[in-house]
Amino acid sequence: MSEKIVQTAGREQLGEFAPMFAHLNDDVLFGEVWNNGDIDVKTRCIITITALMSQGVTDSSLKYHLMNAKAHGVSQKEITAIITHAAFYTSWAFAWAVFRLAKEVWDENAPELTEKDKYQNSIFFPIGEKNPYGEFFVGQSYLAPVSTEQVSVFNVTFEPACRNNWHIHHAKSGGGQMLICVGGRGYYQEWGREAVELTPGSVVNIPANVKHWHGAAPDSWFSHLALEIAGEDAGTEWCEPVSAEDYGKLK
After folding, report:
1. What pLDDT was estimated at residue 29?
2. Do 134 and 242 have their domain in common?
3. CATH number of the domain within which 102 lies
4. To which H or E segment does residue 214 belong?
5. What is the spatial distance between Cα 163 and Cα 214, in angstroms, rounded to a whole number?
6. CB–CB of 227/151 below 8 Å?
7. Cα separations in angstroms, 228 against 152, 154, 155, 212
8. Do 150 and 224 share a domain, yes or no?
9. Are 217 and 203 in contact (CB under 8 A)?
10. Hey, how many other C-beta atoms are within 10 angstroms of the C-beta on 244?
11. Is 1 a residue whose pLDDT tops 50?
């Protein structure tokens, strides 16, 4: 199954000025049309590149689709053949312009996107830097502040198989934590209960004084927003790591 195409450019650039256009661009064109399984993504990329080339569109939007084509399996040999063939039906001048962009995208000396870069391109919130609380995690995690005023919100990202230790958010009253999954696939588990799978849109309300852990699935990156709930004498107690044996039982 192909990776889902996710687009946020509409809302980022025109969300306030033209909200309907932003919605149609991000949710309908890319959210529905591009993810329709009747045509594979590689074929859609080729069709789109050819259509834009025929109209003389050689700006950043075409470069995006060239990069998308490369990411979904279009080789340098294939893209040069596609542009050459289309040149006879569109414009020789357009072909020159497209070739200039294609050379940049298929530059063999350009560094390949890392798995982190690819995952970042699939989610809205930033991944951030290596987690300063990494000593309480098995595997690599990252932390990015989303809001540090009124309500503290952080995006926590886990590489595949990464998870935090069992821990407890203590509080005399109030307290606890809320998790909102924003990317990938992961798990949340309370002590003595079965693990719960988390996917984008999943929300977990963690009461104070409950021992638990959360982290990525073995084969997927995972990101969630973490919201600390205000409480009296609130604090976090870090406990033992989740054992490899228990983690390996996850489905």
Report:
1. 92
2. yes
3. 1.20.1290.10
4. strand 212-216
5. 6
6. yes
7. 6, 9, 12, 15
8. yes
9. no
10. 9
11. no
